[in-house]
Design brief:
Distance between the termini: 42 Å
Number of strands: 4
CATH class: Alpha Beta
CATH topology: Alpha-Beta Plaits
Shape: globular
Helix content: 25-40%
């Protein structure tokens, strides 16, 4: 199976709990199609560089996926239908990152 990093942005109007529920639903969809999610991270509500569908902020979420292409394609199809999803990006990687992502690591400003 192929390895993917998947990031999606949800509208600012939805709550963090609803974003977690969406992540759970997409994880179940992948598992039903023969894949698995090895890591999920909720990065929080962040400002966008420019407006996307009239939104200035978005909820960011990351999923590390080990799944066949057909399962990822089905998840992307479901995301295109969902009005709460502003953008998503799937990146094929050679290996999945262990531990927290760069966004979740605490910055050391005392250098």
């Amino acid at each position: 199976m192929a390895l993917y990093e998947f990031i999606y942005l949800a509208r600012q109007d939805v709550s963090a709990a609803q974003v977690e529920e969406m992540t759970k639903n997409y994880t179940e969809l992948l598992e039903a199609n023969g894949g698995k999610v090895t890591k999920t991270e909720y990065w929080g509500l962040k400002s966008l560089a420019y407006r996307v569908k009239k939104n200035r902020k978005a909820h960011y979420s990351l999923l590390n996926i080990d799944a066949p292409h057909s399962a990822v394609a089905e998840m992307e199809r479901q995301m295109r239908i969902n009005e709460d999803i502003l953008r998503f990006m799937t990146i094929a990687v050679d290996e999945l990152e262990d531990g927290p992502s760069v966004m979740m690591q605490k910055r050391d400003d005392k250098k």
